[in-house]
Amino acid sequence: MRILRTVVPGLVLVAAALAAPFAASDQGRQTTPPAPVDFSSLKLPAGFTISLFADGVPSARQMVIGAKGTVFVGSRTARNVYALVDRNRDHKADEVKIIAKDLTQPSGIAFRNGSLYVAAITRILRYDDIEDKLDAPPEPVVVYDQLPNKGGHTWRFIAFGPDGLLYVGVGAPCNVCESLDDPRLSSIVRMKPDGTNVEVFAHGVRNTVGFDWHPTTHEMWFTDNGRDELGDDLPNDELNVATKAGLHFGYPYCHQGTFKDPEFGAKKPCSDTTPPAGLMGPHVASIGMRFYTGTMFPAAYRNAIFIAHHGSWNREEPIGYRVMVAKTDGKKMTSLEPFVDGFLKGIRGTASPGRATGDASARPADVMVMPDGSLLISDDQGGRIFRVSYR
Question: CA-based angle 331:332:336, to the nearest 5?
Answer without folding.
Answer: 140
